[in-house]
Specification:
Alkaline_phosphatase_core_sf; alpha/beta; 24 strands; Alkaline Phosphatase, subunit A; AIM6_PI-PLC-like_dom; about 30% helix; disordered N terminus; 20 helices; about 20% strand; TIM Barrel
Length: about 600
Amino acid sequence: MFSTLKKISLALAVSAASLAFSQNYSAHSHNDYEQKVPFWYALGSGAKSVEADVYLVNNELFVSHEQKNIQKERTFGNLYLKSIEKALDLGIIKDQPIQILIDLKTDAEPTLDKIVAEISKYPKITAQKNISFVISGNQPKPDKFNLYPDFIRFDYQSLENLTPQQWEKVGLLSLNFKQYSVWNGKGGLTEDDLPKVSAVIKKAKSFGKPFRFWAIPDGKTSWEFFAHHGVDFINTDHPKECAEYLSKLEQRTFKNTVFSEVYQPKFGYENKKTPVKNVILLIGDGNGLSQISSSVLANKGQLTLTQLKNIGLIKTTATDNFTTDSAAGATAFATGKKTKNRFIGVDSDGKPIPNMTEVLSGKGFSTGIITTDEIVGATPSAFYAHQKDRGMEKEIAQDLTKSKLTFFAAGGKSKVSGLNHFKLANSAVEVGESKAENLAYYLSENGVPQVLKGRGNLLAETVENGLKFLKNKKKPFFMMVEAAQIDSGGHSNTTGTIVTEGIDFDRAITKAIQFADENPGTLVVITADHETGGFSIPHGDMETGTVEGDFTTDDHSATLIPVFSYGAGSENFIGVYENNEIFHKILKALKLQ
C-alpha cells in the first residue's frame, strides 16, 4: 500500500507544494473517504480540509458512510493518519494548513477517546501546528471541550455564545445551509434569502472562527457566492474542481477603474449616398463576444461600440486549422484570401498576395498602421509583409523598408532598421502636427506596456493624431488599428487585462467614430481576428464594475466573431460571412472591385 501511495504522493508533490494559500477560503472535501484516492486526491488538488465519517466498532475506528458498509482495511489510521505521516515524510505537507474534520457516527466520548489514542501514536503529526483535527457529529457537550488535548478542536454547530475557554477549543463553526435557504446553486439567491444568509454569515464570523455551511449546492456559482461572502471552507464532493476554481478566483475576478467615455454617434450618413473615401479598420486581437461583453459590463453597461447599429458575424477558420491564429486571420483581412496559420501575406502555397496597403497605395491612397504590438507582430505585418512564418521577424522587418505605408505607430523599435525614408515622431501630438511624407512613431523599444502597466490613453491619442496626419495629406486613406493585448489577457487567462484592453480599444473606437462623423465618406469597420481563451463571464457586479471571467483554454477558439460597422458603406458588412470577405467588402465600398 505504501509503495502505491508513495508514487501517488510524488506525482502530487509539485502540485501541492506550488499551491498558494493566501485566500481566506478553501475547498472542504466533503465525505472525502468516498473519493477513489482519499486524502491524497484532496491534498494534491489543493483542498485544505477533508472530512471522514468514523465509526467505533470492536475498539477499531472505521471510515465509512454507513456502518453496514464498513470494510476492515478502511480504518481511520490507514486512510488518514498513515497518509498524513507519509505526506510529512515526503515534504508534501510543509507550512500549509490541513484540517481533518472527523464526523463521529458512534457514541461521542468512547469514539473520541479512541480518536485521541490513535492520533497520539503519531507524535510527528501532533507536533505540527498546521495540522488540526476537528471533531464533528456526535461530540461532547461544550463544557467538556477542555478535557481533550491541544491537537483536538471541535466543530461547533450553533450561533449561541460560549465561554472564552470553550471558544478556545472550537476550530470550526458549521451550520446547515438548508435551514436558511432552498437555493439550488443556479442563478442567485432570492431577495428574501440573500439578506438572511448574509446576516447568518456575518453573525457566525463575529465569533472569530473559520466558518462552513454544510448541505450547500455544489457548483461554481455557489462556490463563488460563498467564497465572496466570507465562508472559509466550501463544502464540495468535487475537491479538485472546487480547489482549482477557488485558487484562481481572484485572478479571474477584476474590479475595473479604467473607463471609456461613451460617444453617441450622429448617424449622419443614413439615407445618403455619400461615396466612401476613407476606411478605418479596427481589429481587437482575440476580442470575441464575451470579451466585448466584459468591457461593456465593466464600463457601466455601455461602450461607444455598443451604440452602433450595423452588426455582422465572421467565420475565422484557417485553411489548415479549425482555429486561426493572428497571422492567418490578419492575412485574410489584408489580402482577401484565407491561408495557413503562421503565414503572413502569402497564400496556402506560400506565394505572396497583394495586401490592402499595396492595392490602395496603387490607387492613390495614403495608408497607415497603428498597433499596441511590435510593428513586426503578426497582425500589423500582414498588411505590409510577405513571409511564410510569423516568426521570421528579420525578414518581416526588411519587408517594412519596402512597404507602401505612409505612416505607422507601434512598438518594437529595436527590431527595425533602414527606414531612412520615414521621419520619426517623438509623441502622438507630433504625429498630428507632422507634414512629413512618411512618418513612423515608436511607442516603445520592444513590447508596448499594457494598460494595467501604465500605458495610459496612448492608443486613443495615437489614433486621433494618426487620423489627423492622414487627413492632412488631402488624399483618401486606409488605416488599420490593432488593439493587440486583449489577446494577451486571453492567453494568460487574466480577466483584468481583457477588460481594460477592451475598454482602451473602445476609446480608440470613439476617436474613429468621431472622425467619421466629422468627415463624411469615412467607413469604420470594427472586428477581431479570432477569440482567445474560450472566455465566459459567469459572475460580476455592474454597479462596481466587477467581472469574473472563466476560461476553457489558453489558446484561440473558433467561435464566430462580431463585425461592427459605421459610416458610408457600412450596410455592406451585415450578415454572416468568411473573414476574408472583409477585404472584398472594403474594396466594394470603395468601388474598386
